[in-house]
Design brief:
By secondary structure, the chain is of the alpha+beta class. The chain contains six helices and 13 strands. Strand 6 and strand 7 form a beta hairpin.
Amino acid sequence: MYYSGMQLSLPLVSPQNPSRRSLCVSGRVYDVRIARHRRARRYLLRVCADGALRLTVPRGASISDGLKFARRQADWIERERLRQERRAEPWAAGTPVLFRGRLEPLGVDGREVTLGGERIPLPRGCDIRAAVEAHLASLAARELPPRCLEFAARHDLIVSRVSVRNQRSRWGSCSPRRAIMLNWRLVQMPSYVSDYIVLHELMHLRQPNHSRRFWRQVEGVCPGWRDAERWLRRHGREIL
């Protein structure tokens, strides 16, 4: 969904009074929506669902330099556009879907869909993808909060609430009120990756930032976090 080295919990921002430009990539002209964000530390480029580009510019940085940055990402823009087109294709029997870190083909038998051992009712007139995603979201709502609370207890942390949501821009978050939000798509990841995300958010209870001290906290509770980050960089866009 985006091209940047930003840390896990920084959300994709909503533009405030965005200006507009255009950019030609591989013969295709893209509308570019430009927004500044005071928390951005580098240029952030995103291909939106409507085919436009969103360029987030750090506070004080140059828009012209941001457009030069966007032009250098021409290959990525084209790959991302094609990926989004493929992602928009309807799901059917045989469509590969990530589930617990494995690409599993969907099985369709009458009014039932199977995915990696899960049997999912398919109501008449219901879209296959909608039925599968609703089932996975329900599964996540049962599994993720107890896992988060288990880790919290193990590390002597107090959580006020754990919720599971349908987010399109982040894997999780930790609020100042000690509430943890987790994306239901964590059930599509290998367990070591979803556990890392849960622990990442829990460590924000100790350090509400991404300082060196924060990453030392993460290292202490999740020594394999770098492997998890590599998986997210490689596969995260497939499910967000």
